[in-house]
Task: inverse folding
């Protein structure tokens, strides 16, 4: 122990307490007694000894005091000799001086190993990641080309006998559009143009999913691509219109060569993997198993919330960490957090304030379209967007609820439903900015994120209370008046948790990259105006 002041006192050695000694003594005596009486107690100990044998063709196990000179007996004798030697050495030394069994200290060795590992990681990170995104991506792509590419060349990967390019002309046309958009994205010098061209490739991929008969994947791809597009547009407000770097001709050629090589390796690897199958596809009976195990017809949703529910639970934790990181990048200063909390409090009391002010002044008719339109600068308002938002916002929210409750049998699920609800909130933000967003959902994003994760974790623990494995789905058909038979699965609770987490993530992104950046821009404009006024 280190005293508050003064020099640290040397540690004092003392005899161990009776609890520390009693546990190993009790276990040793129990092992000794059971060893001597194992033959008589074989009937009682048989259930435990049978767990040692895992092979069906193994000889039966019988407990006895003597089995001859065997390796376990030699190991036991060696342990006895080492124990006696230790006791003899300990008895010849003072209690304060420990016996050095080895010139190497375990604690010091572990400390040096961990310090060396940290140092190696630091040096490797400093060598590989020099703060340049092109260099980092180039390293990743180079490794992607070298490892699979060299492996396929050295091993002589089997090429499929027949390569099926497309099923229809629509697939070829979509693929051509994606290729052209990808090429133009590499040639674009403006950020916004590059973002839209990259989004074309994402929407084209969703269309290919739809052509292949995967509407659930197509819906999710479209929704995710839309969210990514919105986030990138929000971020581009703080960046210049053009890319800052002006690479040389040689750099462009190297990048083009690396991109073409990566695409070639990925395409060849996909073709080789498809032609190297030696077993029957695992998805052959997946449709029937989804109904029997998860009680749903949507195979993708059953996999996410039933079969791979533990993976989805981990992904929810990653979403929480992502939301926290995004908010930390914007709300880095305490005054920003205080401003966000004050804005949320104002939005919660919005209706009460409007009722109190109704006697003092007449409410403009334009305020009826959205809740906080009177707080928006008239020069930034869009009446058409406000009317459209007023008309379709609730429809989008109802659609998200429909996707949530029908996702187990139809395209949808908690993830897609959460993104749809988040896009509805995005529409409210675009119509009325931060004040309108806070009025639309006056809840902290952390509350939604925590509640969603709690519900998802609760759906995992609930089956354990009744003796079932975690995340086990229970299926029931309930008769509801006026509705008839309703198919209910308990995995819906897990999907609701996913829904709340995704909505919380979208709300956090909109408040951070949306209204948070708006506040920063307004503060910078006010400071610039104050400086100009001071110079006058």
Result:
């Amino acid at each position: 122990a280190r005293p508050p002041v003064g020099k640290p006192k040397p540690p004092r050695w003392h005899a161990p307490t009776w609890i520390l000694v009693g546990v190993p003594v009790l276990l040793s005596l129990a092992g000794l007694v059971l060893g001597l009486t194992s033959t008589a107690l074989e009937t009682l100990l048989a259930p435990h000894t049978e767990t040692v044998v895992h092979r069906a063709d193994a000889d039966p196990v019988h407990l006895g005091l003597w089995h001859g000179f065997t390796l376990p007996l030699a190991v036991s004798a060696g342990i006895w000799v080492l124990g006696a030697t230790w006791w003899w050495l300990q008895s010849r030394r003072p209690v304060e001086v420990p016996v050095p069994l080895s010139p190497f200290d375990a604690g010091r060795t572990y400390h040096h190993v961990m310090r060396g590992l940290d140092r190696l990681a630091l040096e490797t990170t400093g060598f590989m990641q020099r703060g340049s995104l092109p260099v980092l991506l180039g390293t990743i792509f180079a490794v992607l080309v070298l490892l699979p590419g060299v492996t396929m060349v050295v091993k002589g990967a089997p090429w499929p006998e027949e390569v099926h390019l497309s099923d229809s002309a629509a697939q070829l046309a979509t693929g051509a559009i994606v290729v052209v958009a990808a090429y133009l994205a590499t040639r674009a010098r403006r950020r916004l143009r590059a973002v839209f061209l990259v989004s074309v490739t994402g929407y084209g991929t969703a269309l290919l999913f739809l052509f292949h008969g995967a509407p659930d994947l197509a819906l999710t791809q479209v929704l995710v691509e839309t969210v990514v597009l919105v986030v990138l547009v929000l971020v581009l407000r703080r960046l210049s219109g053009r890319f800052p770097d002006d690479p040389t001709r040689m750099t462009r050629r190297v990048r083009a060569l690396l991109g073409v090589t990566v695409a070639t390796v990925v395409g060849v690897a996909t073709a080789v993997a498809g032609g190297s199958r030696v077993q029957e596809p695992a998805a052959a009976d997946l449709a029937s198993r989804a109904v029997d195990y998860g009680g749903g017809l949507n195979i993708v949703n059953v996999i996410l919330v039933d079969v791979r529910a533990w993976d989805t639970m981990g992904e929810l934790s990653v979403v929480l960490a992502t939301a926290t990181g995004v908010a930390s990048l914007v709300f880095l200063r305490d005054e920003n957090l205080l401003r966000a909390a004050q804005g949320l409090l104002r939005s919660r009391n919005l209706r009460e304030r409007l009722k109190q002010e109704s006697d003092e002044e007449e409410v403009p008719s334009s305020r009826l379209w959205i809740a906080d339109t009177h707080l928006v600068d008239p020069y930034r308002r869009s009446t058409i967007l406000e009317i459209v938002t007023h008309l379709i916002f609730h429809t989008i929210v109802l659609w998200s609820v429909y996707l949530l409750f029908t996702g187990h049998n139809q395209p949808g699920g908690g993830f897609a439903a959460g993104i749809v609800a988040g896009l509805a909130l995005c529409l409210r933000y675009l119509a009325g900015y931060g004040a309108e967003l806070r009025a639309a959902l006056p809840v902290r994003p952390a509350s939604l994120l925590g509640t969603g994760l709690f519900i998802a974790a609760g759906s995992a623990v609930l089956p354990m209370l009744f003796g079932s494995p975690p995340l086990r789905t229970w299926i029931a058909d309930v008769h509801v008046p006026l509705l008839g038979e309703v198919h209910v699965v308990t995995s819906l609770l897990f999907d609701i948790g996913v829904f709340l987490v995704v909505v919380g993530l979208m709300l956090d992104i909109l408040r951070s990259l949306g209204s948070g950046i708006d506040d920063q821009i307004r503060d910078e404009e006010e400071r610039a105006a104050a400086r100009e006024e001071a110079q006058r």
Observations:
- The two ends are 65 Å apart (CA to CA).
- Strands lie at 475-480, 484-489.
